[in-house]
Amino acid sequence: MRPMADTLSQTDFGHSLLVTDLYQLNMLEAYRSAGMEGTAVFEFFVRRMPKNRGFLMAAGLEQLIGFLLGARVDQAEIDWIRNSDTFSDQLADYLADFRFTGDVDAVPEGTIIFADEPIVRITAPVAEAQLIETRLINFLQFQTLVATKAARMMLAAPGKGIVDFGLRRAHSGESGVLAARAAYLAGFNGTASVPAGRHFDIPLYGTMAHSFVQTFTDEIEAFRAFALARPEQTVFLLDTYETERAAHRLVELAPKLHELGIRLKGVRIDSGDLADHSRKVRKILDDGGLGHLQIVVSGGLDEYELADLTARKAPIDLYGVGTSLVTSDDLPSLDCGYKLKAYEGMARRKLAEGKSYWPGATQVWRSLDEEGRIAGDRITGANETAPGEALLKPILRDGALVEPLPDLAAIRTHAAAELARLPEPLKRLEGTPAYPITVSPALRKLADELLHEPHGRSMEAC
């Protein structure tokens, strides 16, 4: 029988190199056996834009860089490798001394991105560059999905507050915390996730559950007890029984709490026709002298429902969203890849049907229109220049930071500016048009040459 305290709880999912796929270790053994130590260029990109996504928002770079700076295999993992009868002692020795020594260029978090464009470029000895693939995709794909979902929600409910309520519905504790981070950088007001508040200093929001109200024989006694215990957290859940009746009773309770120095902040509605309930509750609160109370709603919301409530002009101040956000439920994965673009200075290109890509190290240049909105991108070789701003920035050189990464507040500011630069057609929730992306003649020429010589072509022209 497996011990209760198994090794899963002891694995450092933030830094362990063994949070990987077997084929990474297979290739690592083979690279080293063949004496292949040349420099490789890999790039992470999205192959095609998903349905009903006019844009994507890059996220997860901070966690990737933290992983690369601290990537390791601890002694227990080394012992497992040596005793597994699967791997060589040479592999164990290599992993025991592993340090990432390569370069990283990346699109800053919060940046709007599109298909076929490099998001992160890794330039490193081939074994290092290959080994980090699994975790790189983990960090970048997931947070990009959630940040994009959150950005769509922000656009669907302009001027409203939105809070992440999704930790309990996330696929793991780690994913729940990282989802809260991705949503906050995209513009959310805060999160209900305590570890996200602790680790990322994201504002915490929370009320009470229906079970709390149900444990009391009278819901007003539940409200009173909650207010006395949490006088700074006075947002009350109204729909355990009858929503409007609870609002009337709260109006009666408010003066008594006020005498005790407790000022009420808001109410939450979690079921039913949220637009209808919010209108009725708003009137009850306003007529009862509680016009300052915010109305918070939750309960299975996504961007389409937010857009509907916005169109219906529901008097809602704050939305709590959970499952649809942290699972990116209508788009749980991206068709993305981390692919070899060059080895030892020679461009490489995969030609598999439906999975080809632009060869060599690449860069993206973004142009704006006269109103400051994004107007088009140009993909070039990394050594080319083009009009506009180069999106990939240097992050690591020889395994060390070029400069400190921006804090979450700065990323959030950048993301807001990026959303403000979106053309209106790309903000649509459905039926979004294609964004104009061109490719430099030199890069096209290199790609054409590799159709006939796929095993290598000098990158000097690009």
TrEMBL record:
GO terms for biological process: NAD+ biosynthetic process via the salvage pathway. Transiently phosphorylated on a His residue during the reaction cycle. Phosphorylation strongly increases the affinity for substrates and increases the rate of nicotinate D-ribonucleotide production. Dephosphorylation regenerates the low-affinity form of the enzyme, leading to product release. PANTHER family: NICOTINATE PHOSPHORIBOSYLTRANSFERASE (PTHR11098:SF1). Belongs to the NAPRTase family. GO terms for cellular component: cytosol. Pathway: Cofactor biosynthesis; NAD(+) biosynthesis; nicotinate D-ribonucleotide from nicotinate: step 1/1. Residues 162-340 form the Nicotinate/nicotinamide phosphoribosyltransferase domain. Keywords: Glycosyltransferase, Ligase, Phosphoprotein, Pyridine nucleotide biosynthesis, Transferase. Its EC number is 6.3.4.21. It catalyses: 5-phospho-alpha-D-ribose 1-diphosphate + nicotinate + ATP + H2O = nicotinate beta-D-ribonucleotide + ADP + phosphate + diphosphate. This is Nicotinate phosphoribosyltransferase. Residues 18-140 form the Nicotinate phosphoribosyltransferase N-terminal domain. It is an enzyme of class 6 (ligase). SUPFAM superfamilies: Nicotinate/Quinolinate PRTase C-terminal domain-like, Nicotinate/Quinolinate PRTase N-terminal domain-like. One of its GO terms (molecular function) is nicotinamide phosphoribosyltransferase activity. Catalyzes the first step in the biosynthesis of NAD from nicotinic acid, the ATP-dependent synthesis of beta-nicotinate D-ribonucleotide from nicotinate and 5-phospho-D-ribose 1-phosphate. Pfam families: NAPRTase (PF04095), NAPRTase_C (PF17956), NAPRTase_N (PF17767). Residues 389-446 form the Nicotinate phosphoribosyltransferase C-terminal domain. InterPro entries: Aldolase_TIM, N/Namide_PRibTrfase, NAPRTase_C, NAPRTase_N, Nic_PRibTrfase-Fam, Nic_PRibTrfase_pncB, Nicotinate_pribotase-like_C.
